[in-house]
Amino acid sequence: MMDDATKTINLLIETERLADKILQNKHEIVALDKRRQHTREAIREVEKSDEKKAWIAVGSMLIEMKKEKALELLQKDQNVINQEINKLRSDQKVLVGQHRDLEFADPLKGFDLNPLSRDEVGAFRTNLPGF
């Protein structure tokens, strides 16, 4: 009888651990998305500027640099943020699947769908009129 109670407690602990990790990832995604939006706004402002140099924040410092170099750094930051968000989203799918397994629930339908690539959309357009 004690063995079943121990298994149940371990199952609940593991379920809660996964749920906490899922929530933590969700908060990280939201924070990264805010950062991505701020970076996108900064890129837009630097592009619109007529100045040859731009002031950008690097950590807690403000640095003046050439407009082209500033745009390059901001674009790199944008790419890194996008990669981190995509990694967290793919990890999230795995964690949710594991959590549902622990709860003995059916897997979510459509949760693992991916958008069509440009080549796939192009193939649809050439083969299906009106697509």
Automatic annotation (TrEMBL):
The gene is Pdrg1. GO terms for biological process: protein folding. The keyword Thylakoid does not apply. May play a role in chaperone-mediated protein folding. It is found in: Cytoplasm. GO terms for molecular function: unfolded protein binding. The keyword Cytoplasm applies. Keywords: Chaperone, Cytoplasm. Belongs to the prefoldin subunit beta family. GO terms for cellular component: cytoplasm; prefoldin complex. It comes from the Eukaryota. Heterohexamer of two PFD-alpha type and four PFD-beta type subunits. This is p53 and DNA damage-regulated protein 1.
